[in-house]
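quick one before i forget lol
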Amino acid sequence: MTSSDVRRRRTGLPPEFARLPMRMVRAATAADVYAHPRAELARLTDVGLLHRLATGFYVAVPEDQVGAEWMPGLEAAAAGIAVAAYGRDDAVVMGVSAARLHGVIPRALATAVVAVPTRHDPIRLADRQAVVRFVVRDTARLDAERIDTELGAVLVTTAEQTVLDLVKRPGLGDAEPEVWPAVEQLYRRCDPDVVAEIAATQKMRTTLVRLQDRLGEQR
């Protein structure tokens, strides 16, 4: 593909789309720009300016990836979908997906987990065999930090919050064999006092005891 071809492709993408949080475009967003949003979304996808993640969810392809076989990582994709649905401050990557973004689960997974304030059915992705699962939590109370992804920064549970979440629900995310090795590795980065404080404020004392028993610490 020539540079002029790339430029022509780029001119077809409304600048509003590239400025959206995590570059995520929804059908409702397109309706604010186009009279016939479905047709335009299909066109932009066909020419490689948008990448279709799931029904109703698209991501603006980074300029340096136009014309390439590009798709975002699962955790970034899940975060983008959740941010598009709930907003930047009400979507928090958690569990095994947080562990992935913290670098303690090296294997790519087929399930992503995101905490959100209200119930949402799982979303099956269109570009791969994977699913995004939503967990209802008080996201404002979660101990979280912003971590950069290829789609932008997203809220992710801290190491301390993540180890507690993994111990409480090790099967969430369909990666249970990966959980305890991830917990043991991630716990080395944790402040034990912060872990205990989170457990107390979020009524996870039983989870804390289970964690301490497994790690051989004295309670």
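fyi The chain has a mean pLDDT of 92.
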